[in-house]
Write a structure and sequence with these properties.
mainly beta, Jelly Rolls, Immunoglobulin-like, 3 domains, seven-stranded antiparallel beta sheet, four-stranded antiparallel beta sheet, 13% helix, globular
Length: 516
């Protein structure tokens, strides 16, 4: 072979290889991606697995907070507890339009995010200038191809052709107080749309879907006293998004509060307060059940749960009771119950929203191990024939549907904005609100207790355009049931909740009807 022949052969081989070249990030460059050769991150399999409804999450429970003392507990202000630290504020933030472009190593402690921009938490990141806010009534804004969320849209006008599945990467540092050493440390995300992974100090903690109910993680083994680093990776679409097709602006990010909080190793993990009026709607039984868990690695001796009812800062006469908690092995949990007879308490209605405070303590002899509390309204809900009764009185429900949305802030609605909604609703002579079509911010239920509103508490389940598609689909059953469990568990102690809704425009199959 002469020199010129070799050149021609070499050129032909290069041309052939150019046709055979496949980018390292996949079989082909997806339409609308504008990938570079460095955009090689893999799409996490969790986000397209409908049976994965969370990794390492704590079990659902009532909205609660340990308090440092009785004075804090009788005020029942979770946000002001000395055992809580708000992580709201400015976080470092990076946004990409495709998961393959995300900074996969951002959670590592040596990854420099100093040049990243700041973002306010809570907020919807589209409202902060990242990506496109989409409104849709009943149609999914990504290509329907259950359970996948990365499929190329058939309609080339879809925003998701170019913004296939935006990812927001959040970073911030936080301080664990030295006096929390030896206690459990939890983190609660009140709302993240739509799914997210969490790392602490470079270690992966877990994963969560269900954007409208609290996601809670036990960080005890990941943190240390002093400075710690938190990383959160938020995906706009996950398989759970098929259940979040509500008619509203579709927005993403950490849009509700994030709270770090501490509890003793022997912790009242959950409690349920239920009032039962007598046949004359005069006297009442205050029934309280509590789940006490031993989070430590050693056995816990027998304890007592003590329940006391307060009217403001004053104990209600003879309104106290105890329950015996057996010795618990490491990781073991016990359910205990007790009740208090209350003579003629003032009754809660939307017109007279009288609230007492139930204080629950875990005691070791004369020593208080833990103190929790909740506002309590004495009311009885009944349906007799065609009548809906509150405390024996027929009530006409005059209501509104309410979305959590504000023109300037998207889905990150503040307490002041919630109160403005409540005042407006009251001014229209309405007494009833449906949390359409998902579980609302926990603060909303507390305000409805206080202002006097009859709530339909709706679960975060709506398929709309896919209505009835999942009636008999086994891979999504657990997700539908879990969202309803979360809704009830979170808000079961609120007197304002008079009706539970299994969801909106979802279907009539075994998934929904089986929960009744």
């Amino acid at each position: 072979m002469n020199k010129n022949s070799f050149k021609y052969l070499y050129a032909a081989l290069l041309l052939l290889l150019s046709f055979l070249y496949v980018p390292t990030f996949g079989q082909s460059v997806p339409e609308g991606s504008n990938f570079s050769k460095t955009d090689t991150a893999t799409v996490p399999e969790e986000i397209e697995d409908p049976e994965n409804i969370g990794i390492n999450k704590e079990l659902n429970h009532s909205t609660l907070m340990p308090y440092g003392n009785l004075a804090e507990a009788v005020k029942a202000n979770r946000r002001a507890s000395s055992q809580a630290i708000s992580l709201n504020g400015l976080w470092k933030f990076n946004w990409v339009d495709w998961p393959q472009k995300r900074p996969v190593n951002f959670y590592k402690t040596d990854y420099d995010v100093s040049k990243w921009k700041d973002i306010k938490v809570p907020s919807s990141f589209q409202v902060q200038g990242y990506g496109t806010p989409d409104y849709s009534n009943f149609t999914l804004i990504f290509q329907s191809d259950y359970p996948r969320v990365m499929t190329e849209p058939k309609n080339k006008k879809y925003t998701t052709l170019h913004e296939r599945n935006p990812v927001g990467s959040y970073r911030r540092d936080f301080i664990v107080p030295t006096n929390w050493n030896g206690r459990r440390v939890f983190i609660t995300f009140d709302g993240v749309d739509a799914g997210f992974f969490i790392w602490v100090n470079g270690k992966k903690v877990g994963y969560s879907v269900n954007s409208r109910n609290a996601a809670e993680f036990d960080l005890s083994k990941y943190v240390h006293p002093g400075k710690n680093m938190l990383a959160v990776e938020v995906y706009r679409f996950v398989s759970g998004s098929y259940l979040e097709n509500q008619d509203m602006f579709r927005l993403s990010g950490i849009f509700r509060s994030v709270t770090l909080w501490s509890a003793p190793q022997e912790h009242i993990r959950d409690f349920f307060i239920k009032t039962d009026l007598d046949s004359k709607y005069k006297d009442a039984e205050l029934n309280v059940s509590a789940k006490v868990k031993n989070y430590s690695k050693v056995a816990m001796p027998a304890r007592q749960v003590v329940v006391t009812l307060y009217d403001g800062t004053v104990k209600v006469q003879n309104a106290a009771a105890k329950a015996y908690v057996p010795a618990l092995k490491p990781g073991e949990e016990a359910l205990v119950k007790t009740s208090i007879h209350v003579s003629n308490p003032q009754k809660w209605t939307a017109e007279t929203p009288k609230l007492y405070t139930t204080v629950i303590t875990l005691n070791n002899g004369n020593n208080i191990v833990e103190t929790l509390s909740a506002r309590t309204g004495f009311r009885e809900i009944e349906i007799k024939g065609r009548l809906f009764l509150v405390n024996g009185v027929p009530i006409k429900l005059k209501g509104v549907n309410r979305h959590e949305n504000w023109p300037d802030d998207g889905h990150a609605v503040t307490e002041e904005q919630m109160i403005r909604d409540l005042v407006l609703i009251k001014q229209t002579n309405s007494n009833h609100v449906r949390t359409s079509h998902y579980s609302d911010d926990p603060r909303w239920y507390e305000l409805c207790d206080e202002y006097g509103i009859y709530l339909v508490a709706e679960a975060n389940v709506e398929c709309h355009a896919q209505q009835n598609q999942f009636n008999e689909e086994p891979t999504i059953k657990a997700a539908i049931v879990e969202r309803n469990i979360a809704n009830v568990e979170n808000f079961k102690n609120h007197p304002s909740v008079v009706i539970w809704s299994l969801g909106n425009e979802n279907g009539r199959g075994v998934q929904t009807l089986g929960q009744r």
